[in-house]
Amino acid sequence: MPTLFERILAREIPADFVYEDEHVFAIRDITPVAPVHILVIPKAPISGVAAVPESGDHQHLLNAARRIAEAEGLDAGYRLVINQGEAAGQTVPHLHVHLLGGRPLTWPPG
Ligand code: AMP
Protein backbone atom coordinates (compact mmCIF):
# COMPACT_ATOMS: atom_id res chain seq x y z
CA MET A 1 0.00 0.00 0.00
CA PRO A 2 1.68 3.29 -1.07
CA THR A 3 2.09 5.96 1.58
CA LEU A 4 0.33 9.32 1.31
CA PHE A 5 3.60 10.88 0.21
CA GLU A 6 4.18 8.25 -2.49
CA ARG A 7 0.69 9.04 -3.84
CA ILE A 8 1.49 12.76 -3.80
CA LEU A 9 4.79 12.10 -5.58
CA ALA A 10 2.88 10.08 -8.21
CA ARG A 11 0.55 13.11 -8.60
CA GLU A 12 -2.43 10.99 -7.56
CA ILE A 13 -3.15 13.46 -4.75
CA PRO A 14 -2.64 17.18 -5.35
CA ALA A 15 -0.05 19.11 -3.36
CA ASP A 16 1.89 22.35 -3.61
CA PHE A 17 5.34 21.22 -4.75
CA VAL A 18 8.18 23.62 -3.97
CA TYR A 19 11.17 21.41 -4.83
CA GLU A 20 12.06 18.16 -6.56
CA ASP A 21 15.30 16.45 -7.52
CA GLU A 22 16.43 12.88 -8.13
CA HIS A 23 16.27 11.90 -4.46
CA VAL A 24 13.96 14.28 -2.66
CA PHE A 25 10.79 16.31 -3.09
CA ALA A 26 9.14 18.99 -0.98
CA ILE A 27 5.57 20.20 -0.57
CA ARG A 28 3.83 22.83 1.53
CA ASP A 29 2.18 21.30 4.60
CA ILE A 30 -1.60 21.25 4.28
CA THR A 31 -1.95 22.37 7.93
CA PRO A 32 0.86 24.87 8.40
CA VAL A 33 2.00 25.75 11.92
CA ALA A 34 4.27 28.57 10.73
CA PRO A 35 4.23 31.03 7.81
CA VAL A 36 6.68 28.68 6.08
CA HIS A 37 5.93 24.99 6.73
CA ILE A 38 7.35 22.67 4.12
CA LEU A 39 7.80 18.90 4.21
CA VAL A 40 11.06 17.62 2.73
CA ILE A 41 10.60 13.99 1.78
CA PRO A 42 12.91 11.31 0.37
CA LYS A 43 11.51 9.62 -2.72
CA ALA A 44 12.46 6.27 -1.18
CA PRO A 45 9.56 5.22 1.06
CA ILE A 46 11.54 4.81 4.30
CA SER A 47 8.99 4.63 7.12
CA GLY A 48 10.82 6.93 9.52
CA VAL A 49 14.14 7.76 11.16
CA ALA A 50 14.04 4.38 12.91
CA ALA A 51 14.17 2.68 9.50
CA VAL A 52 16.95 4.76 7.93
CA PRO A 53 19.74 2.44 6.77
CA GLU A 54 23.05 2.86 8.61
CA SER A 55 24.83 3.72 5.39
CA GLY A 56 23.62 5.56 2.34
CA ASP A 57 23.29 8.98 0.75
CA HIS A 58 21.43 10.70 3.57
CA GLN A 59 22.82 14.16 2.87
CA HIS A 60 20.17 14.78 0.21
CA LEU A 61 17.44 15.59 2.72
CA LEU A 62 19.51 18.20 4.57
CA ASN A 63 20.91 19.69 1.39
CA ALA A 64 17.41 20.11 -0.03
CA ALA A 65 16.13 21.59 3.25
CA ARG A 66 18.94 24.16 3.27
CA ARG A 67 18.36 25.10 -0.37
CA ILE A 68 14.62 25.50 0.19
CA ALA A 69 15.18 27.59 3.34
CA GLU A 70 17.47 29.88 1.34
CA ALA A 71 14.93 30.12 -1.49
CA GLU A 72 12.19 30.96 1.03
CA GLY A 73 14.33 33.78 2.44
CA LEU A 74 14.59 32.31 5.94
CA ASP A 75 17.84 34.16 6.64
CA ALA A 76 16.85 34.87 10.26
CA GLY A 77 16.65 31.17 11.02
CA TYR A 78 14.50 28.12 10.69
CA ARG A 79 13.83 24.80 12.36
CA LEU A 80 13.97 21.26 11.01
CA VAL A 81 11.86 18.66 12.82
CA ILE A 82 11.46 14.93 12.32
CA ASN A 83 8.75 13.20 14.33
CA GLN A 84 9.57 9.54 14.92
CA GLY A 85 6.75 7.35 16.16
CA GLU A 86 3.26 7.92 17.49
CA ALA A 87 4.35 9.42 20.81
CA ALA A 88 6.25 12.12 18.93
CA GLY A 89 3.27 12.90 16.70
CA GLN A 90 4.28 11.06 13.53
CA THR A 91 1.14 10.51 11.47
CA VAL A 92 2.55 9.62 8.04
CA PRO A 93 4.81 6.52 8.00
CA HIS A 94 7.14 7.91 5.34
CA LEU A 95 10.24 9.79 6.52
CA HIS A 96 9.86 13.57 6.24
CA VAL A 97 11.54 16.67 7.62
CA HIS A 98 9.35 19.61 8.65
CA LEU A 99 10.97 22.92 7.63
CA LEU A 100 9.50 25.67 9.79
CA GLY A 101 10.18 29.39 9.63
CA GLY A 102 8.86 32.87 9.08
CA ARG A 103 8.12 33.56 12.76
CA PRO A 104 10.07 33.39 16.02
CA LEU A 105 10.34 29.75 17.09
CA THR A 106 10.51 29.22 20.84
CA TRP A 107 12.80 26.69 22.46
CA PRO A 108 12.21 24.23 24.04
CA PRO A 109 9.17 23.24 21.98
CA GLY A 110 6.05 22.03 23.81
P1 AMP B 1 3.90 14.05 10.93
O1 AMP B 1 2.71 14.31 11.84
O2 AMP B 1 5.23 14.45 11.48
O3 AMP B 1 3.86 12.62 10.41
O4 AMP B 1 3.70 15.01 9.69
C1 AMP B 1 2.77 14.76 8.68
C2 AMP B 1 2.40 16.09 8.11
O5 AMP B 1 1.75 15.88 6.86
C3 AMP B 1 1.42 16.90 8.97
O6 AMP B 1 2.03 18.13 9.36
C4 AMP B 1 0.22 17.11 8.06
O7 AMP B 1 -0.37 18.38 8.19
C5 AMP B 1 0.83 16.90 6.68
N1 AMP B 1 -0.11 16.47 5.65
C6 AMP B 1 -1.06 15.51 5.74
N2 AMP B 1 -1.70 15.37 4.57
C7 AMP B 1 -1.13 16.25 3.70
C8 AMP B 1 -1.35 16.59 2.33
N3 AMP B 1 -2.29 15.97 1.60
N4 AMP B 1 -0.57 17.56 1.78
C9 AMP B 1 0.37 18.18 2.51
N5 AMP B 1 0.64 17.90 3.81
C10 AMP B 1 -0.10 16.95 4.40
List the helices and strands and how they pair.
Blueprint: H1 4-9, E1 17-20, E2 24-28, E3 36-42, H2 59-71, E4 78-81, E5 97-101
Antiparallel strand pairs: 1-2, 2-3, 3-5, 4-5
This protein binds adenosine monophosphate (AMP).
Describe this structure in words.
With 110 residues, the chain is of the alpha+beta class. It has one domain: HIT-like (HIT family, subunit A). Helices cover 17% and strands 23% of the residues. The chain has helices at 4-9, 59-71; strands at residues 17-20, 24-28, 36-42, 78-81, 97-101. It is globular. The protein starts with a helix and ends in a 9-residue tail after the last strand. The mean pLDDT is 96. The structure holds adenosine monophosphate. Adenosine monophosphate is lined by residues 4, 13, 15, 27, 29-31, 39, 83, 89-92.
Keywords:
HIT family, subunit A, single chain, binds adenosine monophosphate, alpha+beta, globular, 2 helices, 110 residues
What is the gist of this entry?
With 110 residues, the protein is α+β, with helices and mostly antiparallel strands. The protein has helices at residues 4-9, 59-71, and strands at residues 17-20, 24-28, 36-42, 78-81, 97-101. The model has no long low-confidence stretch (mean pLDDT 96).
Quick one: CATH superfamily?
HIT-like
Mean of all residue-level pLDDT scores: 96
Main sheet makeup: 5 strands, antiparallel
CATH topology title:
HIT family, subunit A
- Based on the coordinates given, report the CATH architecture: 2-Layer Sandwich
N-to-C terminal Cα separation, in Å?
33 Å
Total DSSP E strands: 5
Rounded Rg: 14 Å
Bound molecules: adenosine monophosphate
The fraction of residues assigned to DSSP E strands is 15-25%
Name the overall outline: globular
Could you list the spans in which at least 5 consecutive residues all have pLDDT below 50?
none
Assembly context of the chains: single chain
Strand arrangement within the widest β-sheet reads 1-2-3-5-4
Could you state the order of secondary-structure elements as H and E? HEEEHEE
Q: Percent helix among the residues? A: 10-25%
Number of domains: 1
- Structure class: alpha+beta
What's the helix count? Answer: 2
